[in-house]
Amino acid sequence: FLGVMPAYSAADDALTTKLVTFYEHKKDSSVPSHQATVLLFDPRNGSLKAVLDGSVITAKRTAAVSAIATKLLMPAFAEVLCILGAGVQAYSHYDIFTELFTFKEVRIWNRTKEKAVKFANSVNGPVQVCSSAQEAATGADVIITVTMATTPILFGDWVKPGAHINAVGASRPDWRELDDELMKNSILFVDSREAALTESGDVILSGAEIFAELGEVVKGMKPALPEKTTVFKSLGMAVEDTVAAKFVYDSWSAGN
């Protein structure tokens, strides 16, 4: 797939387009499944100001949004973090989650165990490599799914009541990471209702009702409900790339 994600933010005085290619690798590849470039334009005249590494921006802004959702929605005393998947997004989520939150235990599972072991050996803190997704998820307070799964890999009867799940993978209308039981028995938050109802197989195929957009919670329009089992379905929004790209560009400009 080739995706084109244009956005304009008046508040940030920024105009961008992200070009992202997505290739489903049948076998493990040294090339990431998602590769991206962000073009930053001058909103006053349309001239190109910068070309930025969209892969880094995508990884970091996606993890940042998951962190915002987690700060609002996770249970009060969250001690165990579970990451399902060991690709680029697993690393970016691990970095920001261990920086912002204090977990006593971090677990990881990946379809290919070698990648999970490599992940555990390359990050700064201790990570427990689990032999199954069920082992990793059972008893976890916060679960992050960042996989290439097309059918569910996380099931409702594994999930601790009151846990919070950030569902980042399965970005196609016929792909799943979470089963129907989990989707229907959780309070569902999304980044965009419109996107979730057209792009997310977890939302479309389960028929789960969307409770709120994350922005509505941030702005105080809807409650967070951290005492409930919550799912944040992340698909990504172009404006996140715009804000991130402008932040990088401004920081670079100031350095010069």
From TrEMBL:
Which BP terms in the Gene Ontology apply to this protein?
A: thyroid hormone metabolic process
Q: Name one Pfam family in it.
A: OCD_Mu_crystall
Entry's Gene Ontology molecular function annotations: pyrroline-2-carboxylate reductase activity; thiomorpholine-carboxylate dehydrogenase activity; thyroid hormone binding
The top EC class, named as a word, is: oxidoreductase
* GO cellular component entries: cytoplasm
EC number(s) on file:
1.5.1.1, 1.5.1.25
Q: Record's superkingdom? A: Eukaryota
Q: Which reaction does it catalyse?
A: L-pipecolate + NAD(+) = Delta(1)-piperideine-2-carboxylate + NADH + H(+); (S)-cystathionine ketimine + NADH + 2 H(+) = (3R,5S)-2,3,5,6,7-pentahydro-1,4-thiazepine-3,5-dicarboxylate + NAD(+); L-proline + NADP(+) = 1-pyrroline-2-carboxylate + NADPH + H(+); (R)-lanthionine ketimine + NADPH + 2 H(+) = (3R,5R)-1,4-thiomorpholine-3,5-dicarboxylate + NADP(+)
The family line of this record is: Belongs to the ornithine cyclodeaminase/mu-crystallin family.
Assembly and binders: Homodimer. Binds the thyroid hormone triiodothyronine (T3); T3 binding inhibits enzymatic activity.
Provide the protein name.
Ketimine reductase mu-crystallin
Q: What organism, scientifically named, is this protein from?
A: Pelecanoides urinatrix
